[in-house]
């Protein structure tokens, strides 16, 4: 355990490292159009800049416990920061799209190690009776990173260049690596003579990597209408099934799935998956809605999200202290899912004339709702694990959050597209010449164009175009509102799951375990 100044330098360093990794999951989204133009690539191809990072992240995260043990945690952590930083430099220097995609993948390999390793370092920095506080502090990065990514990205792209999105990581990464070298305790690589689980690594890479590509590219390429999506889906199913069988069979697994025998970790992982679904889906849907339909810029959208994020960040350490003093994390998670459901329900009432004031309350609820979920679920996941199993439990929990985000974005994107088609068919059945409201609108539009010099025929054609545009906007709005309502329902459905994670009595716990309220 560290104390005093050294302890808080370590805390600040690893939180900053976790934040820059999570910022990079969303900061690029707002610059895709600019990158596409500058690199002479299509928007569809440029989306691989986002996909490659996500693939690398989700492959590396579950392996972090094993790699940190084999290489030595300090060396692995510093090496990951330096890889992330160096890859950021080469991302900015890239002269073509596929060069950028390659270095973005390497950036994801380095970044994927930062979350789980940061969490295990933080738990070792605090005594067992303060690990709930450590969870609250670690949650700052999880909440702040994805939320301020669009704000930073929008500002940098508007005022500087897309390359600066990557260059901003360099001084931060170098500082974090230097402070980690100075203050982290040395850790020796494990020399237990166990063989490396190469088959597990291969199955994990092929299975999770294929699944991530399917989720990221499915909607764009018409899901199973594309042959490569079918092939990758089969690879994912086969490899993940074999991975689970193999990892439970051998003594030196790359992922120790046996920790999922903990009922608390297993249920926490499910809830964390749904948390990732909601957290990343919100950050995906709201910017699309506000920019495409309401007309806000990326920076304005980010600024609307910022107050709720700041509230969430400010209460996270206090939530950790509350759990440390004996408040059950299940109760906090209950409140989090309730607020998140309320956010989705309220915002689903928006319309095309909605002003920014309407969004204030729902977005303010979103921030604390996220904090009330991230903090207790982060603590709850490892609360019943032996100290030696905490790194693996943290890695699995972080992987479930990332996978939940990928599933969420893929599902919501597909859901919006399908609801748009459904809503359009429902609306156009009423848009006929015999419908009084339609006839009134057409007369109004036609008269307006004729007043500006168009002939009757020209004015009628223009009026039909305006009417079609109105239908498209209305069906798109309804689709986004359906998506927010779906997010609300999913969060509400999680509440019963939270209630069944009530811990067993202290006497029923295995020896050597640590709970979030131990003193």
TrEMBL record:
Alphabetic keyword roster: Cell membrane, Membrane, Transmembrane, Transmembrane helix, Transport
Subcellular location, record wording: Cell membrane
GO cellular component, one term: plasma membrane
Domain Major facilitator superfamily (MFS) profile, first and last residues per copy: 10-506
Membrane topology according to the record: Multi-pass membrane protein
Domain of life: Bacteria
Segments crossing the lipid bilayer: 7-27, 47-68, 75-95, 101-123, 132-153, 165-184, 196-215, 227-245, 265-286, 298-319, 331-352, 358-382, 403-422, 483-502
Secretion signal span: none
Pfam families per the UniProt record, alphabetical: MFS_1
MF terms (GO), sorted A to Z: transmembrane transporter activity
Family: Belongs to the major facilitator superfamily. EmrB family.
Name of this protein: MFS transporter, DHA2 family, multidrug resistance protein
Source organism per UniProt: Pedobacter hartonius
């Amino acid at each position: 355990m560290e104390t005093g100044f050294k302890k808080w330098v370590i805390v600040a360093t690893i939180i900053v490292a976790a934040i820059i990794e999570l910022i990079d999951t969303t900061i690029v989204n707002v610059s895709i159009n600019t990158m596409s133009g500058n690199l002479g690539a299509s928007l569809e191809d440029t989306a691989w800049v986002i996909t490659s990072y996500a693939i690398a992240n989700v492959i590396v995260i579950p392996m972090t416990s094993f790699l940190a043990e084999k290489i030595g945690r300090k060396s692995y952590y510093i090496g990951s920061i330096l890889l992330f930083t160096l890859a950021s430099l080469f991302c900015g220097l890239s002269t073509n799209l596929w060069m950028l995609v390659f270095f973005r993948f390497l950036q994801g390999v380095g970044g994927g190690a930062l979350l789980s390793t940061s969490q295990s370092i933080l738990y070792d920095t605090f005594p067992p009776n303060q690990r709930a506080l450590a969870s609250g502090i670690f949650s700052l990065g999880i909440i702040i990173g994805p939320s301020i990514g669009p704000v930073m990205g929008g500002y940098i792209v508007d005022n500087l260049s897309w390359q600066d999105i990557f260059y901003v990581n360099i001084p931060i990464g170098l500082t974090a690596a230097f402070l980690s070298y100075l203050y982290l305790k040395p850790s020796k690589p494990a020399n237990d003579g166990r063989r490396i689980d190469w088959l597990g690594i291969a199955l994990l890479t092929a299975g999770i990597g294929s699944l991530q590509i399917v989720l990221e590219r499915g909607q764009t390429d018409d899901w199973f209408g594309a042959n490569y999506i079918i092939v990758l889906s089969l690879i994912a199913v086969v490899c993940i099934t074999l991975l689970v069988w193999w990892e439970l069979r051998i003594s030196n697994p790359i992922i120790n799935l046996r920790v999922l025998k903990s009922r608390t970790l297993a249920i926490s992982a499910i809830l964390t998956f749904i948390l990732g679904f909601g957290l990343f889906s919100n950050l995906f849907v709201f910017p699309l809605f506000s920019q495409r339909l309401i007309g806000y810029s990326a920076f304005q959208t980010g600024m609307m999200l910022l107050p709720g994020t700041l509230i969430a960040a400010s209460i996270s350490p206090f939530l950790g202290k509350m759990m440390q003093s004996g408040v059950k994390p299940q109760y906090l998670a209950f409140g989090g899912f309730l607020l998140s459901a309320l956010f989705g329900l309220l915002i689903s009432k928006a319309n095309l004339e909605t002003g920014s004031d309407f969004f204030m309350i729902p977005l303010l609820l979103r921030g604390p709702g996220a904090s009330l979920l991230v903090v207790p679920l982060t603590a709850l996941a490892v609360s019943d694990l032996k100290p030696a199993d905490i790194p693996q439990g943290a890695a699995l929990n972080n992987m479930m959050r990332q996978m939940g985000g990928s599933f969420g974005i893929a599902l919501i994107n597909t859901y919006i597209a399908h609801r748009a088609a459904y809503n359009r068919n429902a609306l156009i059945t009423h848009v006929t010449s015999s419908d009084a409201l339609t006839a009134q609108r057409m007369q109004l539009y036609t008269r307006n164009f004729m007043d500006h010099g168009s002939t009757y025929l020209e004015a009628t054609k223009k009026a039909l175009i305006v009417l079609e545009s109105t239908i498209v906007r209305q069906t798109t709005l309804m689709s986004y509102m359906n998506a927010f309502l779906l997010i609300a329902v999913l969060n509400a459905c999680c509440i019963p799951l939270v209630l069944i994670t009530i811990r067993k009595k202290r006497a029923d716990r295995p020896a050597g375990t640590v709970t979030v309220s131990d003193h």
